[in-house]
Amino acid sequence: YGPIAGHSARDRATGSMERIEQALAKEQFPLVSTAEAPEGTRVLLGGANAFLVTKIDVDEQAGETTQLIAREAVKRIERAIAERREQETPRYLALAVGFAALATLVYAAVIGLIFLLNRLIGRRLSQAAAAHAQKIRVSGVRLLNPDQVLLLTQRIVSFAAWVIGIVLAVGWLTLVLVQFPYTRPWGEQLEGNLLDIVKQFVLAIVGAVPGLLFV
């Protein structure tokens, strides 16, 4: 969380990641352990230093110590190594490919259904809206143009179908990418962006409701 000897927190994290990758490249399951040092507690991989936990990295007011945080780090690293090795096995990759293929088939079927419903329901809704618009009169004067109502309704339904399709496309791509170790970071980033998009979309709808009710 803080700098040490002129190295920023980011530099320390980057260096730690590089040392961890080097240790994993040398050994399939390196021993993860801790060792006390004057500056704090070291976390070792295969006997080599991975990173140092110092007082600047712990919250002493919460009762944390360098030893406690280092032991927690050891547990997380051991679990991460086991998961990583499992994800590199042919069996895991075969299951991931199968799941991705199944997700792709489901996605394609859902997209096809959405645009089929768009054509069927959109046409009926548009015709119904145009028919009702033709009946709306005040003192014998027709207020709405049925052709314009027909076109507007079709465009609204098509827009809704495209929005749903785009959200599903991002969701499908995220699901496929997170299945594989090398593309998982991209999938996790897409997942965060998708949640932001959905959040903004929902907030925009909620914000527009008072105006729509007023109109």
Tell me about this structure.
The structure is a single chain. With 215 residues, the protein is mainly α. Helices cover 69% and strands 11% of the residues. The protein contains five helices and five strands; from the N terminus they run αβββααββαα. The strands form two sheets. It has a three-stranded antiparallel beta sheet. A two-stranded antiparallel sheet has the order 4-5. A hairpin with a 2-residue loop joins β1 (32-37) and β2. The two termini are 53 Å apart.
Return residue spans where pLDDT drops below 50 for at least 5 consecutive residues.
Answer: none
Q: Which overall shape is indicated by the principal axes computed on the Cα atoms?
A: elongated
**Largest sheet geometry:** 3 strands, antiparallel
Radius of gyration (Å) = 29 Å
| Assembly type | single chain
Count of alpha/pi helices: 5
Order of helices and strands: HEEEHHEEHH
Mean pLDDT over the full residue set: 82
- Total number of β-strand segments? 5
**How does the helix and strand content classify structurally?**
mainly alpha
Question: How much helicity do the residues have?
Answer: 55-70%
